[in-house]
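lol forgot to send this yesterday, sorry. struct tokens for the thing we talked abt
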């Protein structure tokens, strides 16, 4: 599977970045690609722990389309990294086989957040990078 990478550096304390990255209270403010046309009406999840499932709802503001991004944590090192597998919820978590690895690194400029994710086969890599980068930049703005 092709791995794609996006990253940004956020001028904030590591603890603030870590909390805003996984906490549903914060995700609803940044968990979408384009603020003008998309929103995140809700997010669910607990503090990252291996085996925990989280879901982020992304919707077009006009109501024409929406989807749930659901995943299960597979590795967690607090304040440093987390890995999760994308999937969907039925009566149980159905693993889709796509992995996302997130790392946080303190630098003189701030906390560098890097996401390495398995590409999906429907959209071109350039489009996927643009979408994931836009969400990460919303996170930075928030």
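and heres what i got for the seq, position by position
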């Amino acid at each position: 599977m092709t791995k794609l990478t996006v990253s940004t550096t956020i001028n904030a304390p590591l603890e603030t970045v870590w909390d805003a990255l996984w906490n549903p209270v914060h995700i609803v403010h940044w968990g979408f690609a384009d603020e003008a046309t998309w929103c995140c009406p809700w997010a669910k999840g607990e503090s990252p722990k291996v085996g925990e499932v989280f879901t982020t709802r992304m919707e077009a503001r006009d109501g024409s389309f929406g989807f749930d991004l659901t995943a299960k944590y597979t590795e967690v090192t607090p304040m440093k990294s987390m890995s999760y597998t994308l999937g969907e919820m039925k009566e149980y978590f159905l693993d889709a086989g796509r992995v996302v690895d997130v790392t946080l690194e303190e630098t003189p400029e701030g906390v560098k957040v890097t996401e390495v994710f398995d590409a999906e086969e429907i959209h071109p890599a350039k489009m996927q990078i643009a979408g994931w980068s836009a969400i990460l930049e919303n996170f930075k703005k928030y």
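The helical segments are 14-22, 24-27, 125-141. anyway ping me if u want another try
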